Amino acid sequence: MKTKDAVRTVGAETARMLELGHPWVLADAYTHKWPAGSIGQTIELCDSQKRFLATALLEPEERIVARVLDRKRIQFDHSWLSERLQRAIELRSHHADLSKSNAYRLVNAEGDGLPGLTIDRYADYLMLQLYSAAWQPHLNLITQVLQELLSPLGIYEKSRPQKTRELEAVSDNKNYGRLLAGKAAPERLEVQENGLTFLVSLEMGLNTGLFLDQRRNRQDLMERVKGKRVLNLFSYTGAFSVAAAAAGATQVTSVDASAGYTAWAKDNFSANGIDPRQHGFIVGDCLTVLPNLAQSGKIFDVILMDPPSFSTTAKSRFTTRGGTSDLVAAALPLLTDNGLLITASNHQKVDVAEYLKELRRGALQAWCELRVISLLGQPEDFPYPVTFPEGRYLKYVTCVKSSILTGKSK
């Protein structure tokens, strides 16, 4: 770190952002002049006056060309990484209620001072995901330190290929996970969340089958659905559906475009001693299924929608921007007055204010009023710095529906 080869100068705007605590250096006219470097190289960032700003990992040729590791000069080695990981472990033990869960996020990238790297715990296994290739040269060191600190049965890496949007629909049976160290996990590994059992896959598919950032929100749902009829749209592997059924919902209907995910959802019901035959499962595009349910006179007390930010089926394409309002408008006729509409989005580029506008547009289309009674995000094991607003991505909104009484007809 003392050689000139490790020093990179940033422009005034980037220097200002770094001083404000942002962890990224975006490619610009200044970074294009940087000398060549290798992926994962540790560099020092300084301003035009040669004033030191931060130590970072280099990823040349990418939009984010460097990610800040520390605001002081460091030696990126076993000792430094061990201390940073130990700090992440302690945050969870002190501030997150994990007494009934053994599936949670152990390292949340920028939120734990390891930008571009996430580590999730699934029972006795760990799953690494690299959102920056700069971590690839350091995988052996990360694995070694994790083995020393936590002694997991196995450590996996789940690759994050480019163009994941296009791959999502066809990735169910593709192997994106690989064992880095230890013993291989079962094809379907049982984990616990809020006292419930879920089946996850550490090898197959782009995702494991359980989105850990919704743990606290599933607990919130469980407190609202006893004796209620619940419709779960974009149900994926049925985690919200299982939570609702386990909490005493009288009927849970799950809708997803994937037959494979629907079968997985039924297995999750069975894993909790809940007979899936007592509940409903529909394989189909939600925007097509909703009018069919309305035509058949179906009514629900709670409707939940947690779509991906982007999805494509044979007949339609969904995106958070614009698509959310249409989805809300199509769902509201199926919701009883004073019923709950619960919507979620993990789209990082759509902030809370913009997302609420989407809900407003959908409500107006359906001649309904929605009143927000709860606005949640990700749980304590998904921390983010106040200097990094991009880290606050998850929006989970619970609204009460009431019909608008006006002189106008629909």
How many helix segments? 10
Strand content: 25-35%
CATH fold-level label of the largest domain: Rossmann fold
Work out the radius of gyration: 23 Å
Average pLDDT taken over every residue: 92
Shape: globular
Main β-sheet description: 7 strands, mixed
Total individual domains? 3
Give the name of the CATH superfamily of the largest domain. Vaccinia Virus protein VP39
Structural write-up:
The protein has 10 helices and 21 strands. It has 410 residues and is of the alpha/beta class. The protein folds into 3 domains: 4-70, PUA domain (Archaeosine Trna-guanine Transglycosylase, Chain: A, domain 4); 78-189, Transcription Regulator spoIIAA (2-Layer Sandwich); 211-403, 3-Layer(aba) Sandwich (Rossmann fold). The strands form 5 sheets. A 7-stranded mixed β-sheet has the order 15-14-13-16-19-21-20, sandwiched between helices. Strands 1-3-4-5-2 form a 5-stranded mixed β-sheet, covered by helices on one side. Strand 7 and strand 8 form a beta hairpin. Helix 2 (78-95) packs across helix 3. The radius of gyration is 23 Å and the shape is globular. The model is unreliable at 164-171 (pLDDT under 50).
